[in-house]
Design brief:
It contains nine helices and 14 strands. The chain has helices spanning about 30-45, 65-75, 95-100, 125-140, 150-165, 185-195, 210-220, 245-260, 265-275, and strands at about 10, 50, 55, 60, 80-85, 105-110, 115, 120, 140-145, 170-175, 200-205, 225-230, 235, 240. It binds (5S)-5-amino-3-OXO-hexanoic acid (KMH) and zinc ion.
Amino acid sequence: MTASSSGTLITVAPTGAEHSKAEVPNLPVTLEELVRTGQDCERVGASMIHVHIRDAEARPSLDQGLLKETVAALRGETNLIVQLSTGGAVTDPEEDRLAVLDAMPDSASCTMGTVNFGDAVFMNRWEFIVELHKRMQEREIVPEYEIFDVGQLASLNRLLDEHGAPAGGHVHVDLVMGVPGGMPGTTEMLTSALRLLPQGASFSATGIGRTSLPVMLASLSAGGHLRVGMEDTLSYARGERVRDNAQLAARAAALSRIAQRPPIAVDEALTLLGVRQSR
Ligand code: KMH
Ligand code: ZN
């Protein structure tokens, strides 16, 4: 059984660490662009933002000052739940990824295992995962467990058994599907992954690239939530580039309404995820 909400939590992942600003000029990379994207996405139905920051040269960064400034700006200028990525870029050292939590976001991602990531390797050792989980428990930061392959759900069950429930008490998972090296973005895969979901957990799903739409539809039909954004896909339709993140969030909101599970407001998302109200 999964925790249910009558509506759909829409998370926007606007930037990521993989696309270059030179190749994707409409990618939000400055703080101003990020805040504007957040506001636009909130207006059309998003209630959480998954954040990767960039430095002044638009390179992926885990700079502490900038992370703190970003959390403050998003809290000040939007109502969105602010989730920082602890995944960073595949080249980021573990210490820097752990230090992301010092910026005290509402939520942070926690990837549940190592996975081939295109031609690279996205490294997530067991001890590192445990350390992330414990630091989030201590700081009352709500994790989103990112799952790139089904075996990582077995690791999540082990983590909860051995180290207890996350901050807030509720388990929320994001199935990241269609990464070359991870699980494929298909309905069959999503359905089988759900069999390993921890008792009472809720889930979102994200389809990378061209798996975006099939994964979105499969997730909605299975009672799941949605993550969309330019971190995950740059094409809106065959031969059509994404205009901006709000276009993707608006489509997710429209499909949620068609599925009779309309986008939930931030307050309901806080309750669903167990994020403290006094942020
Ligand atoms: N950029 C990827 C290597 C996360 O944000 O936690 C990892 C990633 C996952 O995006
Ligand atoms: Zn990410």
